[in-house]
Structures are given as structure tokens and as C-alpha cells.
Amino acid sequence: MLKFRNILVCLGLLCAALAHAGEPVVLSAGQNQVTVARFMDVLVDPEGHWDFDQIRGEFSGRFAPNSAAEPNFGFTSSVIWLRFTLNSSTVSDQNWYFAERYPILDHIALFAPSADGRYQRTDMGDTLPFAHRLINHRAFIFPLDTTLKGPRTYYLRISGKGAINVSPMLYSATGLVEYTYQDTLLYGVFYGCLLIMVIYNALLALSLKEPVYVYFVLFLVGILVFNLNINGFGLQFVWPGFPKLNEYYWLGIYICTPALAMYSRHFLALRQRFPRYDRLLRHYLISLGVLFVVQLLIPPPWSYYLSTLVVVITVLLFSWLGWMVWSRGYRAARLYVAAWSVFLLLIFIFVLGNIDWMPYASVITMLPHIGALWVVLMLSLALGDRIRFLEQERNQLFIQARESLERHVAEIEQMNRAKSTFLQYVSHELNTPINWIGAANSLDASGPDRDSDVWDMVRKGQQRLMGMVGTSLRYFDLADRKTPPLVTRCQPLWMMDALLATRADALSRRGLTVENSIAAKLAVRANETELQEVLAMVLDNAIRFSDAGGRIVAESAVRAGDAEIRIRDQGRGAGAYQLESLFEPFFVVGSRHHEEGYGLSLAMARVMIEQAGGRIWAESAGPQRGFTLVIRVPLAG
């Protein structure tokens, strides 16, 4: 399969760039750098068995012209041979250098011609100690002999276990200094930003004692280790004598990924808000541990393939996770999503470039650095945004807690008022029969008439107490009822007629007239027994508080799918401030004691009507101007 792919590569290169085939690179005094790749020819040795003499001799006709500015061969075990012709006659008094800017090639050898017609081989690569290099530079720099006259052919042999990308340039001494300055400045900014973020977040971790900052620092350290390896600064400055460590560049990945998982669990509050996603990340962490052991056991390039797969899965997983958490309303995840969405795109392009699925350019090597800086910046801002969000959430919870506390305080105060009202009411109710019993005790016991009066007072007090206890128990039973009453079809007109018939004597004694104008066909949905009880309470109140010779009107109306039954009298009325209090338990207009009532009838009426899905309220134009009770219940279909 590799042979077939390499053959296709060679054919593509042959068809694409015949323009520079065999054309030499001519150096001139006014130049500082020359892009040499398009002047190169390519030969792929699938087995890696050909030696230099064979390449110059019997296989020289197999070279194919290259058209790419930066050839990319992807992950391959083949040996890549490159050939170019250089004419330095016009710059014989200057120093020029061949530079291969891709710093993680395992092996690169330059075969340079000498004056005697032989070739001198110079080997470099990131598998050799850094001291083996001729110039202290992260790139592979080969000095050229510019004193040679006429066109001379140079050969490059490149091999490795990882991706093979080639970014060759020719530099004059001035051009090399400028390239080094720009390169150092660019990476200096990158590593400076990373170090600043590491120190800053480490200080935050020490001061705030929040584990999320510790995990973020570990994530930054992993990014630092990974990038030191892939851009060559690790071998140049950190481990120059231990090139074997370059094979373990993926250690940075296994520092980043678990730290990122723990950071995400704390930052997104997965355990508290999204336990399902938290379980997913726990399984991901276990999988990382298993893969780390596997990665230690398998040799390159398989370990490189596995680490690339881990990076792709990680970026996809956390991009998806951020979107899911954000879509479920956790606003603190918005910058998290922005960080990983852009990073996903950049890493995707980087992977495609390294596996030779898209044209390669030197900017592709910068994509992990750009993506890392973007992620570091966004996640740092996200931590601040999270603090702001949690502050807002805390303030909202504080407001809700305060409102809840105020509501509970108001309920407690209402309960205290109700308790005081109840105690005052009970005191009055108990005082009356006690007075009767005291009066009965003070009567002269002689004579049958005296005995009869005494027993009448005692019986009256007993009935009063029994009525108060029974009515109170009935009210509390209704108020504590958990299930709504059975609702059926009812006709209020016939209920009112039946009630008027039973109260004809009381109406006659008071000289009251009642006009029953409730619609004959009106049908409502209510509990028939309780609706009749409520109508009886309202009618009895109207009779009790109406002046002699007064008029009571019962009428009905239909409004917005509900029926309204209004019972209006011409009695004492009530002030606007009293209308709602009428429905409080044990409330009586005027005195808190009334011989014929207990202050519970309207409170019980409201409970029964509201539990059946209706409403009841009072209306009055003012004291001595009449009173209207309004009952609204649903119409029957």
C-alpha cells in the first residue's frame, strides 16, 4: 500500500512541475534567501535500501520534478531523496547556507560536492545530540561551499518514523540572521505568553485554593512540553544531550488531556449540573490511563499514530461537550466553546497537513501554537467569566433566599395574627357561656321558673361551645384537604329556590323580600353539596345583616366561560380595607364576637369554592351601602 501511494506521489510530482526540471538555482549578490524546493527533484526509496552511489548512478533517471514549495510526504517509512543543482559562482565571496526549517526530522543528510569531484556527507536530525550540529540553531543548517565554480548538484537523504515534511531554504549570512531573529521573536512571544499564564494561574491557585486553577496550570505545562518538542527548542535548550526524549513528545499530550478533563469537570460543574457528562469524562480518564500504558509499550511510528488519534478524539470530545453544556443553558461555557471550536479547526488542518491529505505549508507547523495560544487566552477569560457568572448566580440565589425568607416571615406573622385572632375569639366565646353559668349560679334556686331559666342558659352555652368546636373542626378539615372535591353538573337556580323555601319564616319575620333572578338554564361545574352550603352561608349572612324591610337580589351572568352568581343586599356593607379580611378565619365586621356566628362562614366558603376551581370575593360601596358576594365557577359543558 505504501509503495503504491509513493508511486502515485511520484507520478503527480512528475506531471505537475516540468517547468523547473533540471533548472539550476543561481545565487546572486542581491539576494538574501531563495526558496529552493521548486528546483528540486524527488525520488522515493520505498524500502530504504539504496545507497548514494546507486542514487547518483543507476537510479538517477528515476528522479521526478517537484512542484510544491514545501513538499509533504506524510507518515511514511520510505527514504526520501531530494536533488537540486546550485550555481554559486557570482557569490563566491559570500557565505551561504542550506536550511531545512522543519525541526523534527529523524534523519537528514546533505551530500555536498567538493572541489575534487567527490561528495561530503553531513548528518543531522533530532535523533542525534544537539552538539552534533554545525550551527547552534533549532533548524538544520548546512554551510555551503560557494567557491565552487559552475553548477553543482546536491543531494538530500531524509527518513523518519513520523511525518516527513520538507521546508528547505537557501540563506545568505544576512538572510540567516534575519530568519533567526524573526523566528526567535515569534517563538519568544509564544513561550513568553505561556510562561506568563503559567505563573499567573499558579499564583491564583495558591491564593484562591481552587483546584480548577491547578488543573489549568497542568494543562499549560503539557502545552509547553509538547510545543518545546515539536518545534525543536526542547532539544536545543532543555535536553540537548538526550535526543531519545524527542520520541516521547506525546508525553505532553498525556499531561494536557487528563488536566483538561479535570479542568472541564470543575469549570463546567459537571458533577452538580450534568452528572451524565461527568461520568463520561471519568470513563475518558480511565481510557487515557490504559492508552498511556499501551503507548509506552508500542514502538514508533505506531505510538505517533496513537497520540494523533488521542488528540483528535480529545478535541472532538471537548468541543462537543462545550456545545452541549452551553445549549443546556450554562452561560459560563460560551468562551469554553469558542476556545475549542477554533482549536478544533486548527488541529484538524494541522493533522490533514501532516498525513499528506492537503498541501503542506510552513504555516501549518504554527497552527498548534496559534491554537494553543487561542485556547489559553479563551480559557483564561472563561475563568474570569465563570467567576462573574457564579457571582451573578450567587447574587440571584441571595435575592431568592431573601425573598423566600421575607415570604416565610410574612407567613409566620400571618400565622401569629391568626393565632392571636383565634385566641381572642375563643376567649370571647368561652367568656359568654361562663357568664351564663355564673348568672345561673347567682339565681335564686326556689321555684320551678327559676330552674327552667338556669337550664336554658346552661343548654344555650353548651350549644354555643359545641357549635364553635364543630365549625372550627370543619374549617380545618376543609383547609387541610389534599384531594379536590367531586365536581358534577349543578343548577344554582333550584338550589337557591330550595334554600329560600327553608328560610321563608325568617324572611317573613324580618319583612325581607328576595328576588331570585338566577338564569333557569344556568348549569355549572361544582360540588353540589358544597355549592349549596356556600349559597346557604351567603344567603344567611345577607338575611342577618340586612335591615328590616330590605331587599335581597340573587342574579347570574356568564363571563369568559365562567358563571358568576351575585347575591346582593342593602345591609350594613363594609369598607374597602375590610373586603379581603372578611375571608380570614374568625374575622367579624365590627365586634370580634357575634352571638349568631363564629367568623368562619366566608373563610369556609372560599376554601370550598377555590378547591372546586372557582373564585369568591366581596364587593361593597362602603359602610351602610349594601354588600355583594360574588361566586365565579366554571360553566358545565
- In the predicted model, the low-confidence regions spanning at least 5 consecutive residues are 1-21, 591-595
Number of helices: 16
How many DSSP E strands? 20
Average pLDDT value? 84
Q: Largest sheet, described in full?
A: 7 strands, mixed
Which structural class best describes the helix and strand composition?
alpha+beta
Strand content: 15-25%
- Helix percent reads 40-55%
Q: What value does the Rg take, in angstroms? A: 48 Å
User: What is the terminal separation in angstroms?
Assistant: 79 Å
Shape: rod-shaped
Features of the shown structure:
637 residues; alpha+beta; 7-stranded mixed sheet; 20 strands; rod-shaped; disordered N terminus
Fold and architecture overview:
- The chain has 637 residues and is of the alpha+beta class.
- The protein is 52% helix and 17% strand.
- The protein is built from 16 helices and 20 strands.
- It has helices at 2-16, 52-56, 173-208, 211-230, 233-238, 251-267, 270-273, 275-297, 302-327, 334-354, 362-442, 448-479, 492-502, 504-510, 528-545, 601-611, and strands at residues 25-26, 33-35, 41-45, 64-65, 72-75, 79-87, 96-100, 107-113, 119-124, 140-144, 151-159, 163-165, 168-172, 488-490, 513-517, 524-526, 551-559, 562-569, 615-619, 627-634.
- The strands form 5 sheets. Strands 1, 3, 4, 6, 8, 9 and 11 form a 7-stranded mixed β-sheet that branches.
- Helix 3 packs antiparallel against helix 4, helix 9 packs antiparallel against helix 10 (334-354) and helix 15 packs antiparallel against helix 16.
- The longest helix is centred in the middle third of the chain and has 81 residues, at 362-442.
- It is rod-shaped and about 155 Å long.
- It starts with a helix and ends with a strand.
